[in-house]
Amino acid sequence: MISRLAWSEDRGPRLEEFIQSRRRAFLERFSAEPRFIAHAPGRINVIGEHTDYNGGLALPGAVDRWIGVAIEPLADSRFTLFSENFKGEISGDVAAIPAPVKPWHHHLLGCVALFFKTFPSGNGFRATVGGNIPVGAGMSSSAALELALMGALGACYGHSLTGPRLASMCQRVENDYLGLPSGLMDQLVCQMARRAHLLLMDFARETWRHVAVDLGGHVWVLLDSGVRRRLSDSGYARRVRECRRALSLLGQHVPSLSHLGQLGPAHMELMDSLGDLTPIRRARHQLTENLRVGAALEALALNDAEALGELLLESHESLGMDFQVSCPELDFLVERAGKAPGFLGGRMMGAGFGGCTLNLVRGAALGCFLRAMNRDWQGQTGRELSFQVCRLVDGASVRECPDAAPGSRNP
Ligand code: GLA
Q1: For the structural domain made of 218-390, what CATH number should be given?
Q2: Which of 10, 246, 324, 375 could form a disulfide with 279 if both were Cys (CB 3.0 to 4.6 A apart)?
Q3: Which element (helix H / strand E) includes 152?
């Protein structure tokens, strides 16, 4: 079992290999070549959690796990979507998109419905969808799925859907079709990311920039708590509401405050004077997390992995104590990682209430780190620890398949 934990630079899933498997999946399902293959990566968020819907800062990056969609347009108005992961098919007519029947239908049909509402067409399509981003692990498999499918549909029907426009359209699928009040971070980073860079996002100014990352021999490791909660039942919406309450409470004292991202050290005294109220705790996380993003940028500019690791630990503390989105399994992983060799820092990542912890680990000690963590996790849960070692990669894109033979079926 220990040998399964061994890891080498060459083992991560490779994009080319991934795209070829999507092509083969389409070929097997429909006995034809796809016309386009779109792919979108999952993401890690180094720091800046729950800040996107508060006009704050975040520093995520895309990683080498993907969702891919292989697609071909059809001459009639029928559509067929086959999910390789769920081994199931959805079919219907693009003029009357059916309602979702199973949980995994929701994102797919939400994308199809929004796409054809925006770009009505008499032509349908057939597509296969598959990927290697663990679902519910907090790596944004949903955003990747939305970007890949929407990007594939755009290419298929000749609409140039790229950049932030595509990201916002995918966010609308979550907000308008799934009823989730999620922010824009996941879609934006999975779309705009660049290899070996993080993406600094400023949600108040609606600006972003790529930040080069050179942490030498350090690696990003995700450890999976195995706890799965969907955003809809995770308390995410409650946190969004609590932040709104915090804004209106603090706004009574600071009339110029239009979002929590504007809070700075000068407001700390006011917040302390208001007592230990839930909305104030939420606001305190916003304030301190934004400061940590700033400090993380300085650490990255100096290639200071130790300082960055410390900031991750402080972020975890704040997410647990002030924002209260951690859970015992995530806390256990962070606490034990603190005693494992090669660990510089780590924290719960994403919406929280389950999913993964993100860990910054010395590459040379990776095997020892994973063995120690697996031993502790097995001792605690009786289960083997699932982990992912991630590399920062480029965002989503679509390619046309040279082998596709445009024929009579194509519009
Ligand atoms: C989820 C949401 C994002 C963001 C994170 C928390 O991933 O989709 O918009 O709010 O949680 O940082």
Answers
A1: 3.30.70.890
A2: 246
A3: helix 141-156
Structure tokens given for 171: 């966010």
Ligand 1 atom 8 nearest Cα: 182
Structural domain spans, the chain: 2-212+394-409, 218-390
Please tell me the number of Cα atoms within 13 Å of 96 on its side-chain side. 0
Is 233 considered catalytic here? Answer: no
pTM over 0.85: yes
pLDDT at 14: 87
Name the active-site residue from 186, 202, 224, 322: 186
The predicted-structure confidence for 45-84, as pLDDT tens digits, reads as follows 999 999 999 999 999 999 999 999 999 999 999 999 999 9
pLDDT tens per residue, range 307-330: 999 999 999 999 999 999 999 999
Taking domain 2-212+394-409, whether its CATH number is 3.30.230.10 is answered by yes
Asked if 194 and 394 touch (Cβ cutoff 8 Å), the reply is yes
> Which atom of ligand 1 sits closest to the CA of residue 142?
8
Which single residue is written with the structure tokens 């820092």? Answer: 345
**Atom 10 (ligand 1) nearest CA:** 50
Structure-block tokens of residue 300: 């990255």
Beta bridge partners of 400: 36
